Amino acid sequence: QVQLVESGGGLVQSGGSLRLSCAASALTFRNFVMSWYRQAPEKERELVATITSTGDSTNYADSVKGRFTISRDNGKDTVYLQMNSLKPEDTAVYYCNAKQRWPRLSEYWGQGTQVTVSS
Questions:
Q1: Beta strands 18-25 and 33-39: pairing type?
Q2: What does pLDDT average to over the chain?
Q3: SS3 category, 85
Q4: Is pLDDT of 56 > 90?
Q5: What's the helix, strand, coil split of the chain in %, to 5?
C-alpha cells in the first residue's frame, strides 16, 4: 500500500539543471528520514543525499556537495532533489528511499527515474 513515485528524470545537457520529485502515499511522511540514491549501469548503488524528518539537517555525498540540494515539503508529502551543474558522471537511475525507526522499523523504495547527462 505504501508507494514512493519518482518523477523529473530525463536527458539533460552538461552544466544544466534538473529537479527530481518523490511523492509518498500511505505513510506518515513526517516520521520518515528521506534519501536519494543512484545507480549507474553495472555499478554499485550509492547514497546521494539525506534529509531528516523535520528537514532541519541534510547530508551529501562528496561528489555532489555544492551542486545538489535535497529538500522536503511535509505538507505535500514530497521530497525533492535539485541538481545543478550536471556532469556526465551523474548519469544513473535515481531512487527515492524512506526510513523510520519509530513506531516500528520500516524502509521503502521507489521504482527509480532515469537521469542522462550528455556532453
A1: unpaired
A2: 96
A3: coil
A4: yes
A5: 5, 55, 40
